[in-house]
């Protein structure tokens, strides 16, 4: 696993460097209305090439290119720029995400100089330039006053909670700055969720896919309480748990 982690970190960091070096990209809309840029394609092609050189038997599926099926039974997921709208708008909160399905996850935020990395049984780490820290969720055990990031168009009413800025929700959750993240109506797909479970669970939290476009991530202690709140809201019903 450590070999895979070193590989994922090396490739994701190379991809992040490519994003930072990119000039003004061409931008167009995909069929689903979401933005894609020439930098997305360039970065995904780079990641695919590096994976093909290092682990040629593994499968690769990316957000912008067709799947390459492998023979090893392993599959890498590539989101070359997660948060393309932020990237296009010049906001620094986008990331380059690379995951070995179900096993490890690396998410690099190039403009912030931050990397999140986790592997099953390896824990979760946050790298800030030259500094490394162990990521750990909060120990908050009451919904009353819990700090929550809301992401997406469907924002449930959580009157007893403190709603906080959601620009870096995963980072804030795994480092204990917030206690829960609710992503709802955000058009989530497998690439948006590729890194989330491994990062959060290895930091001590829990993740549940409540329904197709509603995802709950918490510090674990509060998970059942928040899940009950979401299920009680109209239009939000229980689905397949991610954990």
TrEMBL record:
It holds the Pfam family Inositol_P. Coiled coil: none annotated. This is Histidinol-phosphatase. It comes from Lentzea cavernae. The lineage of its organism: Bacteria, Bacillati, Actinomycetota, Actinomycetes, Pseudonocardiales.
């Amino acid at each position: 696993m450590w070999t895979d982690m070193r590989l994922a970190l090396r490739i994701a960091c190379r991809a992040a460097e490519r994003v930072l070096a990119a000039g003004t990209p061409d931008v167009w809309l995909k069929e689903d209305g979401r933005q894609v840029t020439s930098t997305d394609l360039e970065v995904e092609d780079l990641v695919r090439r590096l994976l093909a050189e290092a682990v040629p038997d593994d499968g690769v599926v990316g957000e912008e290119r067709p799947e390459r099926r492998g023979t090893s039974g392993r599959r890498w997921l590539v989101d070359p720029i997660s948060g393309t709208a932020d990237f296009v708008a010049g906001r620094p909160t986008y990331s380059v995400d690379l995951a070995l399905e179900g096993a490890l996850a690396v998410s690099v935020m190039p403009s912030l100089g931050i990397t999140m990395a986790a592997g099953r049984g390896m824990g979760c780490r946050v790298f800030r330039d030259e500094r490394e820290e162990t990521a750990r969720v909060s120990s908050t055990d009451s919904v009353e006053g819990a700090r929550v990031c809301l992401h997406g168009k469907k924002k449930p009413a959580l009157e007893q909670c403190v709603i906080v800025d959601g620009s870096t929700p995963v980072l804030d959750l795994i480092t204990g700055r917030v206690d829960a993240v609710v992503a709802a109506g955000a058009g989530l797909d497998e690439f948006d969720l590729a890194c989330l479970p491994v990062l959060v669970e290895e930091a001590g939290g829990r993740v549940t896919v409540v329904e197709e476009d509603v995802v709950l991530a918490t510090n674990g202690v509060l998970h059942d309480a928040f899940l009950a709140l979401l299920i009680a809201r109209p239009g939000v019903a229980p689905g397949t748990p991610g954990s």
